[in-house]
UniProtKB/TrEMBL annotation:
The lineage of its organism: Archaea, Methanobacteriati, Methanobacteriota, Stenosarchaea group, Halobacteria. It holds the Pfam family HSP20. It comes from Natrinema pellirubrum (strain DSM 15624 / CIP 106293 / JCM 10476 / NCIMB 786 / 157). Keywords: Stress response. It comes from the Archaea. This is Heat shock protein Hsp20.
Length: 156
């Protein structure tokens, strides 16, 4: 009777392999979340789409901003942590009296958004250009040229 195989002999090995695979998958998922968070610093779900491209000499951010005028948008660039912040606020004028009564359906409301993206390298803040065309904001961020000149350092 001792030669007879036991049905649960391999279960411990199977559970140990499964545990290692789950841990490996969890570590991989955490790295992917960390990599994304290094670039996109926006809070909550983003209602507007943002693309960031590296075009060699400059980064180009393209953001869908339908219905927003250039006066509705604000751009801020922080050198310290290389963060580009884009926000927009669109307000609807309130109709009164007869104008308000003419509406059968009134869905357009005040809207706002805020996006932040960390840039992979330093940029020249003085040379940044931005424009809005057909509901698309394009921000061109020229890369900061590193100073390759060697400098002498005095020793005290």
């Amino acid at each position: 009777m001792a030669d007879r195989p036991r049905p649960f002999d391999g279960i411990d090995d199977l559970l140990e392999r499964l545990n290692r695979q789950v841990e490996t998958a969890a570590r991989s998922w955490e790295r992917q979340v960390d990599d994304r968070s290094q670039l996109d610093l926006s809070m909550g779900g983003a209602e507007t789409s943002l693309d960031l491209a590296d075009e060699g000499e400059a980064f180009v951010a393209t953001v869908d901003v339908p219905g927003y005028e250039s006066d509705d948008l604000e751009l801020r660039l922080t050198d310290r942590d290389r963060t580009l912040a884009i926000s927009g606020r669109r307000e609807r004028e309130r109709e009164t009296g007869d104008e308000a009564e003419n509406y059968i359906r009134h869905e357009r409301t005040t809207k706002s958004f805020s996006r932040q993206v960390r840039l992979p390298a330093s940029v020249d803040a003085d040379a940044v250009q931005a424009s809005v065309n057909n509901g698309v904001l394009t921000v061109r961020l020229p890369k900061h040229e590193p100073d390759e000149e060697a400098r002498s350092i005095d020793i005290d």
